[in-house]
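Q: Sequence in, structure out?
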Amino acid sequence: MSLRLDPSDCLPPQAAAPTDAPFGAQTCFLRGTRIATVRGEVEVEALRVGDLAVTASGLRPVTRIERRGLNGGDPVRILARAFGETPRRDLWLGPGHGVAAEGALIPVAALANGVTLRREASGRAEAYGLELDGPDIVFAEGLPVEAGAARADRALAPGRGAVVEGLKTRLIEAVLAQGHGLTDDADPCLMADGARIEPVRLSQGRLAFITPAPRDDLVLTSRVFTPAHVLPASADDRALGLCVTRLQIDGDEIALDSTELDEGWHAPEGAAGAPERRWTRGAARLRPGARCVIVDLAPGGPYWRAPDAPLDPVVALFG
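A: Exactly. Output:
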């Protein structure tokens, strides 16, 4: 994958003075992140005020370091070499942290694809804000990213829509080249007291699940996709499972806006009082004791499919 990670295009026309404003909750490095300095790559928690950081514009002194809990939502985990050669090892950034790429500064969460860049809780709960003597680009695990107080008046260029879409497209293509696949098959099933029940396909888009005996715990499960992760133009960051357009349980018609549909369901969509569809979250609980569940589904996805298990070397050599 060829990406233009040229941080010089993202520099402000003139350095802004540092401030005492609080760091943004979503712009941070997690503990253990290595930052390039004249002392070598130094973990962010070991940096000292006065250390000279390697930046896109040269060497600049660290003027402020702030330690705090991560309270801006789950960080984004960037797998090693997600951008080709960088980062050199897995990197966690706050979701609003800017990555310098394609002549723009792009919030890393806007590039998430669910595989090589994904929102993920981390056991490293400590987060650090880092400020230099002006906004600039530093190198975290080799990846050019922003440094400076996260505030609305910063001079760093924001990511542009077409640039973000193009970059997301290439990141998805890189994941596909690694052996992952995209599929329209949601792999629906009914989990009944922990046992998997496969569907009977009644017609196109209509499935029936029959339990051999009443079960207390019934969960309609499937693969899950996030539109913003697999459709570069989408901003929908919901985790979506099955798109249900009709639901019948033991002969009863269940309204899609029924309060019976709660755990594992998104809000119904469509006209008030007559919703047209309702998405599951990938594991949607149904009423206990049901023997026959019939669902009508609209197309969903595409869903990520993990790569097949690697071929055994002996099989590869001798077929």
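The helical segments are 161-177, 227-230, 313-318.
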